[in-house]
Amino acid sequence: MSRLARSAGNRGSTPREAKRAMTYEVLLNTVGWPLAKIVVLLAAVLTVVAYIGWFERRLLGLFQSRLGPNRVGPLGLLQPVADGLKLFLKEDIVPLNARPFLFKLAPVFAFFPAFLGFAVVSWALPWATPSGRHHGFVVADVDLGILLVLAVSSLGIFGIILGGWSSGSKYPLMGSLRSASQMLAYEIPLTLSVIAVILLGGSFRLSDIVAAQQKLGAYFILPGLLAFGVYLISAVAETNRVPFDLPEGESEIIGFHTEYSGMRFGFFFVAEYANMVLISVIAASLFLGGYDLPGVDDAALYAAHPNLASALGVFAFAAKSALFAYFYVWIRATFPRYRYDQLLRIGWVVLLPIALANVALVALLKLWLLR
Amino acid sequence: MNAIGRFLQMVTFPELLKGMAITTKYLAKPKVTESYPDARPVLPYRTKGRLHVEIETCISCRMCEKACPEGCIRVYPPPKEVFKTDKRPAEFYLNQEHCLHCGLCVDPCPTGSIHHSQEFELAVVHYDDLLFDKETLPYDLDQKRFRWNLLENVPVKK
Ligand code: SF4
Ligand code: SF4
Predict the structure, then answer these.
(1) 3 state SS of A290
(2) DSSP string, A318-347
(3) What total number of domains does chain B contain?
(4) Does the residue B55 lie in any domain?
(5) pLDDT (tens digit, 9 = 90+) per residue, A4-42?
(6) Could you say which DSSP state residue B30 is in?
(7) Residues lining ligand 2, judged by CB closer than 6 Å?
(8) 3-state secondary structure A83-147
(9) Does B16 touch chain A (CB under 8 A)?
(10) How far is CA A236 from the centre of its chain?
């Protein structure tokens, strides 16, 4: 019971007032707090997504003996603002041949699934308030969290296919067809590599998987090294990034958002980066122990200073995710694009057998060693 | 055996790791970008920048004027009486609008009074600013700048 409900009781209130206080409490817990968390999370994620673009461009520049964007603000830190303004001010063109309604709907389809996945990510140990309540650093700590992430990240492909088809032009359509064939290649290895982690962690809930790693005393990257490799590769394909950026084909071929301009293009752009952040965050919680502080006894620290442990956990999580983000930029700076038959070959001939063997391996490991 | 070997190579991808090592090497290397407006570029010695005329040593022989394929140099010698003692031109015009930076005017000059400077920022605000005269032509070697100043009143020649 909250302080409010208790104080209502202390004042010797009528049952009606007590009931109202209870209703207030329930409303706060079902609507108020989740909404507040969603707003904070969305703001944080949007900021990170904006700056991951800056991060990528600067880093890509450094990899290529350039400096990258450094003119707008100190170190170019205002570049995302400038880019956003530019996209907002550009003319919004709907081609004559396009199906206008679907054409306008497609960016939304790409945009929302990318942000939906963040809802189930557990960012840190629960925050303890003075009144003795614990607020989880998660919008919805659902049982099937990781499944939800997989499901909604597959939904993002509909936005791409819809965008390509409704443009009413052949090049976007081809781009979105490549995207469909790409999905065939990576989806199954990706899921299988996650299944290995689920076997190890014994749960679909992301916070449980992190807790299992803390209990084991080792991150799942060790027992699930193969799964980690498969996840890394298929995650690149999942986010449509170089070297698997077939739907987009930024450098040479024309991709699914050829006909898009202004902020509608911006939505696809933001969705791609949001996907990249999501995939990094999920990788960090599945394989690198999420908000676990490396080399620190988290349980003891949490018992002593719960809020310190939570705050540090968020930073640890961010640092681990940044490692993945760095990795993705790194391979973007290194590799040229694969053809889509090559990608299918990698998916089905290399990744799938490895992922399958790994599931069996992890199952045996779980059976005999990690009970 | 061959198939297994190929599969192993596909799985361990040595060449991909090699590529990633190369990009990391370049990450640590110095960058080639010049932050131009902040840091002035170091130009080659023979950069063909805007023409610099040393009015003090010019003898008004008009060789440069004749050599110029664009006809963008006009030299006005001083009156005869003056010319006997002081050969410096009464007026020297360079129409930067037409100049090709070809250097044909530099070669025939008997006194070496005209040559290319390092100045490459040639954009001007007004069309008339492209016409340089005796006052605005010389290039201030210490300042690495023309004496011509945007903020001051630029003389407009008709
Ligand atoms: S550089 Fe060439 S075009 Fe320019 S003034 Fe000299 S001769 Fe004429
Ligand atoms: S050729 Fe040389 S000396 Fe003769 S007029 Fe031109 S700048 Fe003066």
Answers:
(1) coil
(2) HHHHHHHHHHHHHHHHHPPPPPHHHHHHII
(3) 1
(4) yes
(5) 555 544 555 688 888 888 888 888 888 888 888 899 999
(6) P
(7) B 53, 58-64, 75, 108-111, 113-114
(8) HHHHHHHCCCCCCCCCCHHHHHHHHHHHHHHHHHHHHHCCCCCCEECCCCCEECCCCCCCCCHHH
(9) yes
(10) 12
**Block residue for tokens 């904006």:** A50
pTM for the whole thing?
A: 0.80
CA distance linking residue A267 with residue A108, whole number of Å: 7
Tell me if residue B125 falls in helix, strand or coil. Answer: coil
Task: With a cut of 50, say whether residue B156 has pLDDT above it.
Answer: no
- Give the closest-approach CA distance of A125 to chain B in angstroms: 35
Complex ipTM value: 0.75
Task: Tell me how crowded residue A11 is: count the other CB atoms within 10 A of its CB.
Answer: 10
3-state secondary structure of A240: coil
Q: CB-CB: which of A65, A67, A70 is closest to B26?
A: A65
CA-based nearest distance A335→chain B, Å = 8
The residue type at A155: L
- Are the beta carbons of B49 and B118 closer than 8 angstroms? yes
Q: What percent of chain A has pLDDT over 70?
A: 96
CB contact under 8 A, A331 and B35: no
CATH number of the domain that B65 lies in? Answer: 3.30.70.3270
User: What are φ and ψ of residue A18, in 5° steps?
Assistant: -60, -40
Please give the single-letter amino acid code of residue A323. Answer: L
Domain extent listing, chain A: 1-68, 94-370
- Exposure string over A115-154, b if 16+ CB within 10 A, otherwise e: bbbbbbbbbbbbbbeeeeeeebbbbebeeebbbbbbebbe
Handedness of CA A186, A189, A192, A198 (dihedral sign): negative
Domain assignment present for residue B118? The answer is yes
Check if the beta carbon of residue A279 is closer than 8 Å to that of residue A324: yes
Task: Let me know if residue B11 belongs to a domain.
Answer: no
What is the average pLDDT across A163-168? 91
CB contact at 8 A, A209 and A147 = no
Percent of chain B with pLDDT over 70: 85
Domain boundaries, position B104 = 47-148
